[in-house]
Amino acid sequence: MLVKAMDDLSSFLPRQRDVRRRFDRIAADFDEADVVHRLTGDGLLERLQPMQLEARRILELGAATGTLSRQLSRHFRRSQIVSVDLSLPMLREARRHRGWFSRVRELQASAEQLPLADDSADVVVANQLLPWLGPSPAGLKEVARVLRPEGLFAFASLGPDSFRELRAAFEDGDAHVHSFADMHDVGDALVRAGLRDPVLDVDRLELSYRDTQSLYRDLRRCGGNTLTGRRQSLTGKERFRRADKALDDSRQQGSIRISLELVYGHAWGAKVSQTAGEFRVDVADLRGRRRQR
Q: What does the CA dihedral 29, 33, 34, 36 come to, rounded to 10 degrees?
């Protein structure tokens, strides 16, 4: 079942409409082009597997074509998986790739306006979603709202050192790919949103391209050059020509190298609140006590 929670573009913020239109256009080619999304999805799953999680419902926010959701379903066999994405064509691709009896369900919605009840998810996962949320804290606050007390939020994103070769090649002060938050800023944002005990770690990855056109094509096909702060005019041909030359001059062993900083992290939902007048006793303590006469 694919649920369309909102299909009217007027209900989205301008930034959300821009992101949705771009991902609508690239849905058919997304899996082939976005190698980074697959790699960080695998990295997230590796980090989740050792955790002993009892999860009835797992949300994947920014699920795209549902690759990670299907992997989560295979690992967490008793869990319902909900794939949430802003783009309906992305979710249709996700629906096309799963079986009829799958425990994965698709939900079209904004991560900043989830049509879900408070405390309704045991685990929330977000793979490469954070850069698309922009400066607004609404997305992380929604995670904190729908996550049950002591539930888990796990995510992967790119760090500020990503695409540094591309930024240096343009040298014009304009942003041609996303800017990414520093991991310390991400940790602070998690705490401000109401999540606790954030833990983050960083991996490094280097991609090789045979030419600039294949690099630009991958960026277009994974939506990687959408920015709220970009200039309204198109980048001039002369600037692209200079950037192409700079990237060509930077070749190592015949390849154009692009560096990525992969940031993984997790945080926990609020602690279970204790009502005044109540107290807790560990069952193990009860078993270990003898009745005193």
A: 170
In angstroms, the Cα distances linking 207 to 187, 229, 243, 244 are 27, 26, 18, 17
The three-class DSSP label of residue 194 is: coil
Among candidates 34, 201, 61, 184, which has minimal Cα distance to 124? 61
> Are residues 126 and 189 in contact, defined by beta-carbon separation less than 8 angstroms?
no
φ, ψ at 263 (rounded to 5°): -105, 125
User: What phi and psi, each to the nearest 5 degrees, are found at residue 141?
Assistant: -65, -35
Distance CA 279, CA 33 (A): 54
* Predicted TM-score of the model (pTM): 0.82
CA distance 139 to 122: 17
Contacts of 166 (CB under 8 A, 6+ apart): 176, 177, 215, 243, 247, 258
Residue pair 51/116 in contact (Cβ under 8 Å)? The answer is no
pLDDT in tens, 107-149: 999 999 999 999 999 999 999 999 888 667 889 999 999 999 9
CB 57 within 8 A of CB 122: yes
Strand-pair partners of 264: 156, 201
Could you say which of 3.40.50.620, 3.40.50.150, 3.40.30.10, 2.160.10.10 is the CATH number of the domain covering 2-160+179-206+261-270? 3.40.50.150
- Strand-by-strand arrangement of the 196-209 sheet: 2-4, 104-108, 80-85, 57-61, 121-127, 147-158, 256-268, 196-209
Residue 239 CB contacts under 8 Å (≥ 6 apart), including other chains: 170, 172, 174
pLDDT digits (tens, 9 = 90+) for 210-267: 988 888 888 877 765 543 344 444 556 777 788 888 888 888 888 899 999 999 999 9
What is the residue type of 83? S
As a whole number of angstroms, the distance between CA 94 and CA 121 comes to 20
Distance between CA atoms of residues 86 and 88, nearest Å: 7
